[in-house]
Amino acid sequence: MTNHWVDIKNADVILIMGGNAAEAHPCGFKWVTEAKAHNKARLIVVDPRFTRSASVADYYVQIRTGTDIVFLGGVIRWLLENDRIQHEYVKNYTDLTFIVREDYQFKDGIFSGYDAEKRHYLKESWDWEKGDDGYVKTDPTLQHPRCVYQLLKAHYARYTPEMVERVCGTPQDRFLKVCEMMASTATPSRAMTIMYALGWTQHSIGSQMIRCGAMVQLLLGNIGIAGGGMNALRGHSNIQGLTDLGLMTNLLPGYLTLPADSEVDYDKYIEARSFKPLRPNQLSYWQNYGKFHVSLMKAWWGPAATRENNWAFDYLPKLDKAYDMLQVFELMHAGRVNGYILQGFNPLAAAPNKAKLLQSLSQLKFMVVMDPLATETSEFWRNVGESNDVDTKSIKTEVFRLPTTCFAEENGALVNSSRWLQWHWQGADPPGEARSDIEIMSDLWLRIRTLYQKDGGKYPDPIVNLHWPYAVPHSPTPEELAKEYSGRALTDLVDPKDPTKVVRKAGEQLNSFGELQADGSTASGCWIYCGSWTQAGNQMAKRDNSDPTGIGQNLNWAWSWPANRRVLYNRASCDVNGKPFNPGRKLIAWNGKSWTGFDTPDFKLDEDPANGMGPFIMQAEGVARFFARQTLVEGPFPEHYEPFENPLGYNPLNGRESKVVSNPAARVFKNDWAQFGKPDAYPVIATTYRLTEHFHYWTKHAHINAILQPEQFVEIGEDLAKQVGVNAGDRVKVSSTRGYIKAVALVTKRIKPFRIDGKTVHMVGIPLHWGFTGLTKPGFLANTLTPFVGDGNTQTPEFKSFMVKVERA
Ligand SMILES: Nc1nc2c(c(=O)[nH]1)N[C@H]1C(S)=C(S)[C@@H](COP(=O)(O)OP(=O)(O)OC[C@H]3O[C@@H](n4cnc5c(=O)[nH]c(N)nc54)[C@H](O)[C@@H]3O)O[C@H]1N2
Ligand SMILES: Nc1nc2c(c(=O)[nH]1)N[C@H]1C(S)=C(S)[C@@H](COP(=O)(O)OP(=O)(O)OC[C@H]3O[C@@H](n4cnc5c(=O)[nH]c(N)nc54)[C@H](O)[C@@H]3O)O[C@H]1N2
Ligand SMILES: [Mo]
């Protein structure tokens, strides 16, 4: 979230699109209720289904799965056409005035630089035109034909209300009503928040959907202000912590990145990430990359990370490609993976294309499952179901199960969607032989280190030199680890202006990442967490919920990264002179000498607004980008591409004749192309989602949840049910090219057919919670049906839009 849960109560308009917060985030949803009750906020829900969120909305609009870019692109066009944008904001705080290179082009659904054979773009032309001074050229009059404003207008010219109706199936009048409601927040005194989750991420163009939403928010001046923002509602209670700590295969903690294969030179690695400002007087905060990186390496390898060995740079793995879930199972499927450790992961249930998953897991020599429960994956070899994807007798995989504790049985921090690190305390002792994840991992590592120390090996240095300063080596405490993430001084730190003055003694915890150094004198395991555990103690354990601000900026409740900042880009809540756009919801303000207010400002307290430093300090430009210069794989502006399985077989935005249908830059593995179903054989759209009564695949192990939702069902609209010949309670068989499931038919008015480019298309909804372990009635895994393709950038699977056939079972 750019903002935070409590802040939702400040919104005047709330758009829930690409998520179902009332169902999947029922506790956080109370802030929507607050906004409606105390702020007369209007709630808009845009969803293919009439959901629990829709049931309390002021305005509900149906949209076909996978078409949100057409809808949002239509909003962008309408806002520009009707001049309902916040001029002062976009002119000063975005790239609309920036000029793009001459060779940039967009034609027939494809951007310049496309290599059709490799399904890959060369992104050179997606860049700024620079002057001799090295800075981007701009045109404050917005007249230049290649300024971002003009390119944006041209790009979305095709996204008319007629097109929205044709592609999304959303009637024009309803679409226009949403445009009006959103546009009411283009004035400085009103704010709209966008709440989204998997309805946007789980598509082959998911990242671009989210970008498109952010672009709408920028045009309306809704980023950086109270009650505004782009608010990703995260999933597992600590999934925000997972990405923060660099558990994605291409990341290091704090969104630092692993070097690529080709990056053997340490200085070049750092330089490539320390972006120089692209406009005068900008901060470009990533210039501090070296300080964060060296401090991380000191935390990991301690005395073994020295200036001489480039702070142990060679200890880091170098990536030939990202090893996302789809990539890993592809390799496993090809027999190229021997062993696999699953720590709190149930991929047989959670990953797409169960048959492929089964075949993949069956190729392993060994599998280690760290989990408090018996999962489908830990028992994959039972080969339950009717499709007989593998023969149990042929499986040679040895499975080791290591029972773990779960969060309630240990101390620690959970990071919520608001970026708050909240400390929690153990509530019960773990049962049986369960051990904490930390203990299991530590013990494993200690034994592996011993083996390397004894037997040597190809390159044992990173393993034998790992810094392990914990009091009990086989069981570091959560407190020790939390202090390490936050960071401390390794030698006395002095005032740069007066080297005789020691500002931080060796061994002391640091106050903030502003203290981190690139000379080995500081260590911090995750720079964005620096300050979460200071000399004053554990900031995450703060529990003062008083709100002197009146707008829910509870700065003494837990600790928010970065620097306890609650609203990211909060500088954008003020005009260029530092005066709040909306004094009634002030976050910060410039008082002539200093920034003051209710949040941690983005930069130094005495940064005079007259210097013109932009609010978007993580960008080299200092401003927010409409034109995503060379960042995403499929282009600098979001463009609509159809899901890989789609109901028409063509992209109605480009017309029947065009060959450009689905994301031209999404990765598809060779053998999966043939597995995409065509609409003649698989005419019904399917989407998968969750229910309040279950959490994924685990709560079916708990009696109370199993009683609440005991049996698998599929939601079917009344028209389709009639066509198929099923009544409520009958069983249906739903098949894709990859397999089938059978479940009870829940016939509902909540799912209505779509009218797409003149054709009537039906949809079924499949809750994902069932499987063959636990206390609920055994069910089929929903992911028997889903396709093996992901978002072009993140590789998040396309779980939300695929094609099936529905029959009576
Ligand atoms: N009770 C409960 N709560 C949970 C979870 C759980 O299992 N149970 N899981 C947690 C996790 S890990 C996550 S990631 C979050 C997920 O939170 P959500 O994303 O809110 O959950 P989903 O149920 O997957 O639903 C997404 C919604 O998107 C809609 N949708 C599908 N396709 C599209 C589309 O193309 N456009 C638009 N606009 N909407 C679309 C679906 O109809 C559905 O209503 O929930 C978390 N909360
Ligand atoms: N079709 C379809 N598929 C989906 C989705 C969808 O919307 N549609 N959603 C996707 C999403 S968003 C997600 S997040 C995934 C979820 O996929 P997974 O994360 O694989 O599934 P979960 O069942 O949430 O959790 C995995 C295991 O973690 C264990 N666990 C809990 N606490 C601990 C702990 O402290 N330590 C350890 N070691 N284990 C623990 C649980 O017992 C559980 O078995 O599913 C994805 N799959
Ligand atoms: Mo999730």
TrEMBL record:
List each copy of the Molybdopterin oxidoreductase domain by range.
Answer: 2-377
Q: Which family does it belong to?
A: Belongs to the prokaryotic molybdopterin-containing oxidoreductase family.
At the highest ranks, the source species' classification is: Bacteria, Pseudomonadati, Pseudomonadota, Betaproteobacteria, Burkholderiales
Annotated Gene Ontology MF terms?
4 iron, 4 sulfur cluster binding; electron transfer activity; formate dehydrogenase (cytochrome-c-553) activity; formate dehydrogenase (NAD+) activity; molybdenum ion binding; molybdopterin cofactor binding
Q: Which PANTHER family match?
A: FORMATE DEHYDROGENASE-O MAJOR SUBUNIT, TUNGSTEN-CONTAINING FORMYLMETHANOFURAN DEHYDROGENASE 2 SUBUNIT B
Q: Name one Pfam family in it.
A: Molybdopterin
Query: What is this protein's record name?
Result: Formate dehydrogenase-N subunit alpha
Q: Where, subcellularly, is it found?
A: Periplasm
Residue intervals of the Molybdopterin dinucleotide-binding domain: 686-802
The record's InterPro entries line, in alphabetical order, gives: Asp_de-COase-like_dom_sf, Formate-DH-alph_fdnG, MoPterin_dinucl-bd_dom, Mopterin_OxRdtase
A GO cellular-component term linked to this record:
periplasmic space
Q: Which UniProt keywords apply?
A: 4Fe-4S, Iron, Iron-sulfur, Metal-binding, Oxidoreductase, Periplasm, Selenocysteine, Signal
One of the protein's GO biological processes: anaerobic respiration
Name any cofactors this protein relies on: [4Fe-4S] cluster
